[in-house]
Design goal:
Layout: H1 4-12, E1 20-24, H2 25-38, E2 44-48, H3 55-61, E3 67-70, H4 73-82, E4 88-90, H5 97-106, E5 110-113, H6 116-129, E6 133-138, H7 166-172, E7 182-188, H8 197-218, E8 224-226, H9 244-257, E9 262-265, H10 269-272, E10 276-288, E11 291-296, H11 305-309, E12 315-318, E13 331-340, E14 349-360, E15 364-367, E16 389-393
Helix pairs in contact: 2-3, 5-6, 8-9
Bound molecules: pyridoxal-5'-phosphate (PLP).
Pyridoxal-5'-phosphate (PLP) binds at residues 48, 50-51, 69, 71, 91, 190, 193, 228-231, 266-270.
């Protein structure tokens, strides 16, 4: 699963150049192109920037996406600067007056409105600036319980700070007046993360169906439905990727049943997780209470993903043969090893009790699936260890 270029770099870097994040932008481009090609032509693909907003990543995705979903004023400025040519959808709870003013000024293409107060605020600010605001109302639709079995992060259909309860949506429709600044384009729903393709299709069909019924009831022409992101990444089985072909087929059926709707999706993790690796080395191997621990350079202050998701992060051992010291090389053999970082907290664990044939101080470790929700969700300054290096491998 590790690409040849990443492997070469992992062995070429010196210990002091580690840890390092390496992103294979060519692999990212190929993956994004395959995702795009699996979707029906009319379905718009947005990238949720919060998964990984690094400018080289945003730019590598640009040829393959229709736009970006941003969820804060910071992301808004950042993404507009990195890829000014593509549209932005501005979502997320708790948008401030300042953020909304700035978004209107920047001409953000879509606002995903999370509450009644936010809608009224946006109406006031848009009128003030004499600019229109194109809106998708975010709806917290009930998820069919069966549809979300196994969803890692379900947030739809239960009490939630995200979006509007479905019955509140109706009450807001009168705020969209012919001469007002608010233009209702459609519905947005991002209901769960970690779903497989058939379940995602079921959820998307439910959202589209609900939007069409709303549209029919009110004679208002809703023309867009954004069915969110949350396409699953399987950290336990990194080779089993989200079935984009099956998903694309399901979305084609939904599009056919709803010819007047523009369908849009906004995945984050499933687009960028696979292109990134966190490379490091084993500083020490020790045994305690009969268990083996490999202490790595770096840790969860760089790669918080396993701590955040409570999983064993997938990795590969890249053995090195040099051992410059006169004393025996610390090693684990034919036993389970727990990989920890340099932080003085027992929570700094990247993978627990993983059987290895051999792991020695000085061996390199390449953590896979480190391209999304990795560096950018980590608490970099805790304990003041050095920052990792960053390498973006291009064609
Ligand atoms: C986080 C988020 C996404 C992306 O979710 P992934 O699980 O990374 O695909 C999309 N839309 C919204 C509203 C989000 O909050």
């Amino acid at each position: 699963m590790i690409t040849a270029r990443v492997h070469d770099l992992a062995t070429a870097l010196s210990g002091d150049d580690l840890p390092a994040y390496v992103y294979d932008l060519t692999a990212l481009g190929a993956h994004a192109r395959a995702v795009r090609n699996a979707l029906p032509p009319g379905v718009e693909l947005y990238y949720a920037a919060k998964a990984n907003p690094a400018p080289p990543i945003l730019r590598a995705l640009a040829p393959h996406v229709s736009g970006y979903e941003v969820a804060s004023g910071g992301e808004l400025e950042h993404v507009r600067t990195a890829v000014p040519e593509l549209p932005l959808a501005f979502g997320g709870p708790g948008k401030t007056d300042g953020e909304l003013r700035r978004a209107l000024k920047l001409g953000v293409e879509r606002f995903h409105v999370e509450s009644e107060h936010e809608l009224r605020l946006l109406a006031e600010l848009a009128a003030e600036q004499d600019r229109p605001a194109d809106i998708l109302l975010r709806v917290n639709l009930p998820l069919d319980a069966a549809a979300t079995v196994g969803a890692a992060l379900a947030m739809g259909g239960r009490p939630s700070p995200f979006g509007l309860d479905p019955d509140r949506v109706e009450h807001l429709l009168p705020l969209f007046t012919a001469d007002g600044p608010l233009r209702l384009r459609g519905i947005h729903a991002h209901l769960a993360s970690g779903l497989d393709a058939p379940t995602q299709v079921t959820v998307a069909a439910g959202i589209a169906h609900w939007a069409r019924k709303l549209s029919d009831r009110h004679g208002s022409a809703l023309t867009e439905v954004n069915v969110g992101g949350g396409m699953g990444v399987d950290y336990a089985r990194p080779d089993r990727r989200f079935d984009w072909a099956a998903y694309g087929g399901g979305m084609a059926d939904i599009a056919q049943r709803n010819p007047d709707l523009t369908l849009r999706i906004e995945p984050g993790r499933a687009l960028t997780a696979y292109c990134g690796w966190y490379l490091t080395e084993v500083l020490d191997i020790k045994h305690s209470g009969g268990e083996a621990f490999a202490v790595l350079r770096g840790g969860t202050h760089h790669l918080r993903t396993p701590a955040a998701k409570q999983h064993d992060h997938p990795f590969r051992i890249l053995p090195t043969e040099e051992w410059p010291r006169p004393w025996p090389r610390p090693a684990a053999r034919e036993e389970p090893v727990t990989l920890v970082g340099q932080l003085c907290t027992p929570k700094d664990v990247l993978a627990r009790h993983i059987p290895v044939a051999r792991l020695r101080a000085g061996d390199r470790i390449a953590f896979a699936l480190a391209g999304a929700y990795a560096w950018n969700i980590s608490h970099h300054d805790f304990l003041m260890h050095p920052k990792p290096g960053f390498h973006y491998l291009d064609a």
